[in-house]
Amino acid sequence: MDDRICQLWEKITQRTQSALASGALRSIPTTHEIVEIDGIAYVLRQLHNLQRKLDAKKKQDEVAARGIEFNPFLPYEEELYVDDITPTHVCLLNKFNIVDHHILIITRAFEDQTMLLTLADFEALGLALLEIDGLAFYNGGPPAGASQKHKHLQVVPLPMSPEVRIPIEPAIKAMKIEPTQVFRCLCFLLSTV
Q: Considering only CA atoms, which of 138, 122, 101 is closest in space to residue 9?
């Protein structure tokens, strides 16, 4: 494994501290509750203050209204930069995180968030997940919840809460999947603002 990646978790935690201190990281406090449905323990998070993210989005929209395309990843905020993952991807902290140490794996060059994932995306994500016990996801465009046009994958560290490691884990275990077997598990997330 690449020596740069071997220290990824340490870099994430160090960068989190410095980004919080500088104000670059704008964590959104939440409370959570566990709701069990059909044997799945869902972690429901309630935001306490979404205003900071809404204010940032308003500024982006004002810039876009003047005909200037805004991309928070080109250039990205240096205070949110964690590490180079591959020649094609870098790791950043999620500026408006609701889970500590939430990271983004972004493409160095612009690719649209609606594009299918590539082998390079999976390579970068795989390298990050070698060090981070986390849940990775990709919001493939606005209908899937993407708020930025620049391609980025997301990783949140596990457990999802002190009570639940990952909500769908019992369902996956019940599937009795062989280690080399490819499988698909459909999950639906509900979001209300």
A: 101
Write down the pTM of the prediction. 0.79
Rounded CA-CA distance 92/44 in Å is 25
Q: Which of 117, 105, 83 is nearest to 154 (CA)?
A: 105
Kindly give the interhelix angle for 8-22 and 119-131, rounded to the nearest 10 degrees.
Answer: 90
What amino acid is encoded at 47 in this protein?
L
Kindly list the structural domains of the chain, giving each domain's residue range(s) and its CATH number in brackets, ordered by start. 3-174 (3.30.428.70)
Poorest-pLDDT segment among 24-33, 73-82, 83-92: 24-33
Q: Which residues are within 8 A (CB) of 9 and not within 5 positions of it... i.e. 6 or more apart?
A: 131, 132
- pLDDT value of residue 10: 95
